[in-house]
Structures are given as C-alpha cells and as structure tokens.
Fold each of these.
Amino acid sequence: QVQLVESGGGVVQPGGSLRLSCAASGFTFSTYGMHWVRQAPGKGLEWVTFIRYDGTNKYYADSVKGRFTISRDNSKNTLYLQMNSLRTEDTAVYYCAKGVAAAGITHFDSWGQGTLVTVSS
Amino acid sequence: EIVMTQSPATLSVSPGERATLSCRASQSVSSNLAWYQQKPGQAPRLLIYGASTRATGIPARFSGSGSGTEFTLTISSLQSEDFVVYYCQQYNNWLWTFGQGTKVEIK
C-alpha cells in the first residue's frame, strides 16, 4: 500500500534553513504530482507547495514563495522541501501528500505521518 | 486565492444522531471539493472527493453534496470514532486551500 515517510524536521533558529524529505513507496512515484501541507500547533491545514510528476512545474503558497523550494528525485522515490529564511510562523508539522494524477489539479489521497519543524531562538 | 469557510467551528451532537457540516467557497469551485477527517495526533484522511464521491474504504454513513460555492458533509449516525475534526478543501486552481475545520464533539 501507499507509504509516505517524512524526515528532516527539528529545531532551527529564525533565519536558518532546513531540508525535509519524504520517502515514497507502494506506488509508482514518478507518475504522480506531490504536495507539502503544514499544520501549525493547534491550527488548521495550510497547503504549501506542489510539484508535477516530472518536476517541470511547481506552485507555492504566497506565505512561502521565494523562501521554500520543492523538488523531487524520481530515481530515489523521494520528495524534498528546502526551507530557507525560516520564520517563527513556519513552525508546524509538515506533511507530504500524494495527488491522484501526474500533473492536474486534484485532491490528495494519501498523507505521510508528518515531521515537526520548530523555528525558535 | 479562494477562501473556504466552514461552519460551525464546533458541532455538538449525540452519538447515533446526524451531523451536518457546511463549507462555503468565496467563488465557484465547481465540484472540485474534498473532505478530510483528522484524528488527534494523526495525518488527515481523505473521506470525500468530487464533492460527493466516497474514498476507498469510507463507510456509507459519510456523504457529501453540493456544487459551486455551497457544500455539505453529512454523517448519518455518529459513531464514537467520528468525534474528531473535519476539513474541506478546494482544488479548482493551482492554489489549493482548506477551510479552517469543524470539530465534532459529543453532546
């Protein structure tokens, strides 16, 4: 079955950087669009970014544009999120989520368990 | 950005009763609307997509309806495991957005 396992979370100071990974298995990773979604402590869900199956198109929420970069390595079945210039408001659990098509705008049918990022001095 | 507004924020219902959750979009999203359930400490789980299609393995007591800007999630007879948080999500453009969530609590 589909499995998504995030890693790379931790504590970082404001202005710092962190790279998250999401290891995928149980499906043909290279044929699906993928997302990152975050959830601040005690808050709701916020979509962060999307990447097409082939990495050619990427979309970002305004709150992270210019600071975060999504990428993927289809040979390693892994999704990444490079987070730079981190702010305290970036503190959240970060989930990777799978779309249901290669490139279209779809819902998310599988989610990882999340990794916690804490931005604090 | 399409703003999704869920109501109520908290819904108090007795076990076995029906729960009706609402979601409104700031502009039409056609039927590109999904509902997710989130239990404490867990990742969200897909319940409904296309406004009314149940995801694989979702019990028949969950149903969705609506199109355009007004949507409803109905849980016909609440079980103990259903008293958690529900989110709607639109996927009508390249900026996906979620509602703020509705918590269903035991009355």
Amino acid sequence: AQSVTQLDSHVSVSEGTPVLLRCNYSSSYSPSLFWYVQHPNKGLQLLLKYTSAATLVKGINGFEAEFKKSETSFHLTKPSAHMSDAAEYFCVVINGGYQKVTFGTGTKLQVIP
Amino acid sequence: DGGITQSPKYLFRKEGQNVTLSCEQNLNHDAMYWYRQDPGQGLRLIYYSQIVNDFQKGDIAEGYSVSREKKESFPLTVTSAQKNPTAFYLCASSILIDRQGNQPQHFGDGTRLSIL
C-alpha cells in the first residue's frame, strides 16, 4: 500500500519567517518523492524531487526538503517566506515501474505581510 | 518552449451533453494522465496512457472516456453519465521510468468545467 499524509491543511506565516510544510508517506518500495506548488487556477509546478540520491534536496525559489527514511517524512522548508510563496503545496510519491502516483491532499500556505 | 497545453480554460456543460477537453504536449513524453481536482481532495486519477492506442482506467473513470491516437494528444470526454462533473481538470505527462528512477509529471494549466 502507498499513501501520503500532509499533516496541515493550512499554514500561516509572516513574511520573512521560516516555512515548514510537513509530509509523511508510506510505501512498500523505495519511493521517489516530489513537492509541487499550485497557484490559483493554474497547474502544478514541480518544486523539487527526491529519487534516492542525496537526502537533502534543493529546489526552486529557495525551497528544500529532507528525506528521512527512519521517520518516513519529506518535509518542505524555506528559510524566509515571501509574499509570492502564498499558494497550495502538494507532496507526491511515485512507486514502481508502472508509475503508481499518490498525491497528498495539499497544504495551503498563507503569507502575512 | 516545450510544455502542455490544455484548452479551453473554462468550459460549461448543459444537462445531457458530452464535452471534450483538449490536452496537447510537445515534450515527447510517452505517458499522459488526466486528473480531477476538487477542493480539499487533492488530485484523483481519471485515466492514463503509457503508449499510443492504449490507456488504462484510474481511480474515478466512470462517466469519462479518452483516446490516444497520437503521442502528443490525449483528449478527455466528460459524458452525460458523469453526474457531478463540476471540477478543475488537469492533464499531465511524463517520461516513463528510466535508469534514474521515477520521473516527475509535468502539468498543464487546467480546464475548469461547470454545469449550466
């Protein structure tokens, strides 16, 4: 079985403060993990991906995520939030040669000026 | 620029009507996917295709149909059998798994379908 849990449906931070969006997964195989961002009425844009190389993954727009196998987590962080970061973020796990894809239910990030 | 184009951006359906959503990609990807997005539910897979002239049902295929006559095109038809079609529909494509492992999906900008 495969699943993804985004622990917070909404996160609110002040501009310039750190961002933490939490994601836990379960998987029977070594997974590939991804974070996407979605702005209103837009498609999903890939932020970063983990595919069994370095456990600390750097992405676009200053985001990074750390794969922790012992904790089955892949939390997304950013040192300093910007107003343009306000969007919905999705954690995604992909397994196997048949590309079984599972999306989390999303975390909406609000950035307060 | 390479990418995925979905059209139209907004679409309205009358009762008993079938409507078709277009998805075209010029990324030379083998696999294409259709998702439905409802508030608070994330994305749910409707259909996917890994090769021309072949496609598979996803988790919520009832009331939908697809075709894959060309590598770059994967249109989705929302039939009158789909009783609750109001949603945001997203098309995606990807390279199939390769030596670097699973590859991410690339998404279009979506089509918002509403009932008249």
